């Protein structure tokens, strides 16, 4: 029997409740879910890849299924192939996400047509959540507890305080 492996890629800077929803649901679709934590300098990460990997690993601890957290700095399809994946799992929040993700899925299919892209709609209550907005809210002193786990909220608060001290 073939093991179904899925890859859920992202920057996870920080990991949100929306990400967790997709991870929980994605883990049910495959025998092994590989969470690929990628570098994306254009997104101005708040946390290092190592910190994000630790955060994701900590947050997924209670989720059923075989889940791995791996960093990568390559084309997604090269990473997926290295992991033996037959599926890319992507979360969708809104129509704007769909347009971007649809284009990416088409390009990825051109690169490797043996790996399917599967889209999961985020839970309605979690659809507006974006890591970029969570960071912005936190930087301006707003409450982010509705969007992230308490442990992630503490990580972000600590980082915001460090960044505030550096800027003083």
What does this structure look like?
With 168 residues, the protein is an alpha/beta fold. The protein is built from 6 helices and 5 strands. The protein has helices spanning 17-27, 49-59, 76-83, 95-111, 131-139, 150-167, and strands spanning 5-10, 32-38, 66-72, 87-92, 116-121. A 5-stranded parallel β-sheet has the order 3-2-1-4-5, with helices on both faces. Helix 4 links the parallel strand 4 (87-92) and strand 5. The model has no long low-confidence stretch (mean pLDDT 91).
Strand order of the largest sheet: 3-2-1-4-5
* General shape: globular
Uncertain runs:
none
Strands, total number: 5
Mean pLDDT: 91
Task: Characterize the biggest β-sheet.
Answer: 5 strands, parallel
- Please state roughly what percent of the residues sit in beta strands, choosing from under 5%, 5-15%, 15-25%, 25-35%, 35-45% or over 45%: 15-25%
What integer value in Å does the Rg equal? 16 Å
Secondary-structure element sequence? EHEHEHEHEHH
Question: What descriptors fit this protein?
Answer:
globular; 5-stranded parallel β-sheet; alpha/beta; 19% strand; 5 strands; 6 helices; 168 residues
SSE map:
Blueprint: E1 5-10, H1 17-27, E2 32-38, H2 49-59, E3 66-72, H3 76-83, E4 87-92, H4 95-111, E5 116-121, H5 131-139, H6 150-167
Parallel strand pairs: 1-2, 1-4, 2-3, 4-5
Structure at a glance:
With 168 residues, the protein is of the alpha/beta class. 44% of the residues lie in helices and 19% in strands.
């Amino acid at each position: 029997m073939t093991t179904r492996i899925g890859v859920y890629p992202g920057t996870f800077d920080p990991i949100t409740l929306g990400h967790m929803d997709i991870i929980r649901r994605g883990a049910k679709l495959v025998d092994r879910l590989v969470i690929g934590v990628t570098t994306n300098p254009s997104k101005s990460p708040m946390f290092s890849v190592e910190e994000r990997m630790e955060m994701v690993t900590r947050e997924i601890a209670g989720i059923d299924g075989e889940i791995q957290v791996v960093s990568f700095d390559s084309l997604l399809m090269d990473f997926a192939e290295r992991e033996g994946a037959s599926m890319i799992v992507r979360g969708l929040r809104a129509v704007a996400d769909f347009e971007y993700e649809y284009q990416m899925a088409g390009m990825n299919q051109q690169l490797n047509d043996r790996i399917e892209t599967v889209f999961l709609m985020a839970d309605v209550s979690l659809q507006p959540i974006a890591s970029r907005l969570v960071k912005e809210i936190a930087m301006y002193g707003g409450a982010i507890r509705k969007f992230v786990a308490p442990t992630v909220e503490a990580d972000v608060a600590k980082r915001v305080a460090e960044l505030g001290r550096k800027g003083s």
